[in-house]
Structures are given as C-alpha cells and as structure tokens.
Amino acid sequence: MLAASVMAAVTGTAQTASAGVRKPAPVAPAVANELNEQGQATYFVMLKGRADLGSARSLTRHSERAAAGYQALTRTAERDQKGLRKLLTGEGVRFEAFWVVNTVLVHGADRALTERIASLPEVERLVERRKAERRPETPAKAAAAAEWNIQQIGAPRVWSERGVRGEGVVVASIDTGAQYDHPALVRQYRGRTANGTFDHDYNWYDPNDYCQRIGKPSQIPCDLHGHGSHTTGTAIGDDGAGNQIGVAPGAKWIAVAAGGLFLLQEDLLRAGQWVMAPTDRTGANPRPDLAAHVVNNSWGWEQWPDDFYTQMIDSWISVGIFPVFGSGNSGPGCGTVIPPGQGPGAYSAGAYDSTGQIASMSSRGPSPLGAGTKPNIAAPGVDVRSASPDGGYVLLSGTSMAAPHVTGTVALIWSAAPHLVGDVARTKQVMDLTATDVNDVTCGGTAADNNVYGEGRLNARNAVELARNISPS
Fold first, then answer.
1. Nearest to 444 by CA among 353, 370, 355, 351
2. Catalytic site residue 175?
3. Taking the model in full, what pTM does it have?
4. Is there a domain that residue 473 lies in?
5. In the predicted model, what is the mean pLDDT of the chain?
C-alpha cells in the first residue's frame, strides 16, 4: 500500500497535521491506484507558485510583452521547481519541467519517492497523466454554397471595404499539424522565405517527431490526420485562384503537431510554451520575440473536470495572445461544453449551419467551472470547406471548424485596429457586442447571451468596424 501519509492525502482522511508536521500535498486517486497496482507511477507535480506577470501586462509592444512574460514564467518555474528537480536528479528519475504551467512531469516514481515529493512544501498536488482520444469531425454529406461560411460572417466585406486581410498578425495552430505546401496555405506560412524556400525553425514544431512516425521526413511540417490543415485553412487560407477558404488570408501562420487521434497532456503543454516562445525544430533556443498573436485550439478533453490548462491560458492572455477554443461536439445536451473551452479565460465557439441554426452536436453551457455563458460565441461549423493534406479540399463539421472563424476574425480586428493588438479583453468585447443575437434560452441565459449561441453569431465585418472606432487606451 501507498505510505499512510500520502494515502491520507488521497482519501482525505487526514484531519489535522501533528504539531510541526506539514500535511502532504493531495495525490490524485488515479496516481495512488497506479502506485498500488504497479509499484510506480507517472504523474504531474503541480507547484504552488505563480509568476507575477504584471510587468508583461503593462507593456504595449507584442514582442516585449511576450519576452517579459517568458522571463517571469521561466524564472518562477526555476525557483519553485529547484528542490524537486534536485530530488529527481539525485534519484535518477526521468522528468520534464514546464514553465507555461508551473508543473513537472515525473516518469516512473516509486512509492517512497512519491511520498517525498508530496511532502515538499512547494508542491500543490500530484495529478495523473492523461491521454485523450480526439472525437472525429463529421464528413459533410452534401456541399453548401462554396465558402458560404466566409461570406456569412462578412469577411469579404472587410477585405473590400477596408483593404484589410489580417496583415501583420501571426496565427498559431495547436492541432495535428498542417500541409505547409498546400496551395491555399503555402503563401501564408511564416516559414516561407522571400525567395520561395522554407525555413521551418521557429515556424514549425513537432515535439514527439510524430511526422517521422507516420513515414514523413523528420522535422518537416506534415499533417498527422487532416484536421490541422482544415482548421488552419479556415483561419487564413487562400490559393489566389478562387479558393478563398480563410477569414484572414493576409495573416501568417505557424503550427505545432500536438498529436493525431490521441492527445497527450505534455504535448499540449509543449505546444502552449512554443506559441509564446517559438523554438527551432529541435525545441531549443526559444524566441519570445516571435510569439504568435492568436492561437487556434480545435481540441479539448471530453471528461477532464480539472483546471489543468487554466494557467496556460492565463499566461497567454497576460502576454497578449488571444486563446480561441472549440466548445466541443457533445451536444445537444446542456452542460456539455468541454475543457479547456469551458474555462473563464478561453474564448470558445459553438457551431451553426448555413441556415444559421445551431448544430445538434455543438456543446452547450453552462460551464461547470462557473465561467459564465458558454460557448462565448457561435460561428459556422457545419459543412465547412477547407484544406485537406492531399492538396485538395474537404468539407467537415464540428466546433473545431467554428473556432478558426473566430481566430481569423481576431486577425482581421488586430490588423484593422493595431491599437487593440494584445488587448484580449477589449477584443472579446468587440466580438461580443457585434455578434447577431439569437434567442435560445434552452440551456439558460438571455436572448442576447445564452448557453446555446453565446453572445450570438459571429459578425467579422461589424467587429472590425467597431474596433476601428475604439480609441486607444
């Protein structure tokens, strides 16, 4: 059995600590079970400390904010994790330290070591390492009008009336990767140089060398499943020959291959760090001055009631990175919105079809985390045509398809109103205020803000117009 003091933390049976004895950090039941069954366990150690990101928030230049945030986060992680890292190194146990969330992934710790870790005063809790299966998107049965989705949110009006297509904004994709040389993606890839060659350092990251595992060249961008090319295309795609599949085709994109049909927590943390401080393809030499502006997250955990990624999202927001998530494909029941999109910092999208009707599969609120109305907004997500990794195009449905419409709209707003770059709160407000209200209080809320459509249907054109008329703060 696991040592008594640690078991008490797991079961909650410890009432008060003896005089002079500190109560150990809580250990998740799944970790305790793994230890009891196998004699060792792999888990995340969550540290108590939080970085002071006030200095980053006070800056205006995006590159400077990212650099200040990176310095504060890495400094805090090094300080708080020092004792734990020393202990693990001394015991010869493999571990990986993170800074975007103050946590350390420990591999194969036995009972005795786990008890010592839980007793460290800087440790907050021990949580299990999880793997999530991605719920596949639904292939379309019949095509709607070509790029109905782009037309419906008013993106072409922004292009024609304001001459703005997302220029100057970098969109990051945390997904299955992307086909970098797809006709609708290649010109917008930040790794494409002026002479038409490619430099993938700081523009592409494959933390587990997934591409090589599926027979692709190592450290060259690929798409593990087809999902990432589609979502990236919806955010920024345009081949210049009539396939205007993206909301902000003047923006640039970078990407992380965070997994295919399965997602590992550590890969998502690596990705979360990379969008704030991109590295070369080996994961070395971070450059926060090359941080993304907005990150599309068309992923989530079906059953993960923990706030594991709250720190990551808060870190992004503190340095001015806008976090977009899908709400999940678990509808039509109420309370089905999934993490991390159900959290207070995440701006999550529900999905509707070409008639403006919410999709049955689109997850509804309310959020179990008390994060207010969820989803935050609704966007096209049924029969959406976008890029496929074979160089062609495919129609898919899901809130994964809705999210990049929001991502592209943020790019348009920040391109048209540079004084809002990095101002996540006011940018959310701009989209909220200009969304088209839909009265559906099936899952609670009001006509103007409910748990089915959120603030309403996304309107990129009106959002840009409002943003241009907001005075710099």
1. 370
2. yes
3. 0.93
4. no
5. 92
